[in-house]
Amino acid sequence: MPRPSTGIPSPAWTDPDCPVARTLDLVGDRWSLLVIRDAMDGARSFTDFQRRTGIARNILTDRLRKLTAHGVLTQRTAPSGRRLQYVLTGAGRDLFPVLLTLRQWGERHAFEPGEPHSTLVDRHGARVPDVEPTGADGAVVDADTTHVRKTGSERHR
User: What pLDDT digit, counting tens, does each position of 2-18 carry?
Assistant: First the structure.
């Protein structure tokens, strides 16, 4: 589903007016997000991604092709000059806050209290603080304090 260049939404979009739905159409499956996660953590080769995720070769091939076609990853020649590697584009790096909030939600809701899990740390080794979105006035915003300004045909957040 390439980005429409004519301004006319692609008929393949789940919900053409909703940014959440379009994003999920592009990167919303489990394997795509795990590939992006691993690219952020230094994976570059097909073998790296396969080893880290355990994904079947045919599915990994499909996800790498899709993420490259949609500008989330790009291919470049490895320093050895013998292979191609996958590297996040600016659009791919822009998904960092998405993965961070998914991670933090998982830390709060997908583990039993005291159950061990990996921890994301900054360059100084300190745990990355919880993300709290704020509005223009600096106040924390959430589902109760926001609403979607819909276009003519949009139905969902």
Answer: 444 444 446 688 888 89
8 A C-beta contact, residue 127 and residue 119: yes
pTM of the predicted model, to two decimals? 0.84
The rounded distance, in Å, linking the Cα atoms of 69 and 84 is 15
Instruction: Give me the chain's average pLDDT, please.
Output: 90
Sorted by sequence, the CB contacts under 8 Å of residue 56 that are 6+ apart come out as: none
Q: What angle do CA 85, 87, 91 make, to 5 degrees?
A: 155
Would you call 74 helix, strand, or coil by DSSP?
Answer: strand
Chain position carrying tokens 């589903």:
1
pLDDT of residue 156: 54
**Any residues with CB less than 8 A from the CB of 46 and at least 6 apart, and which?**
60, 61, 64, 86
The answer to whether 3 touches 19, Cβ cutoff 8 Å, is no
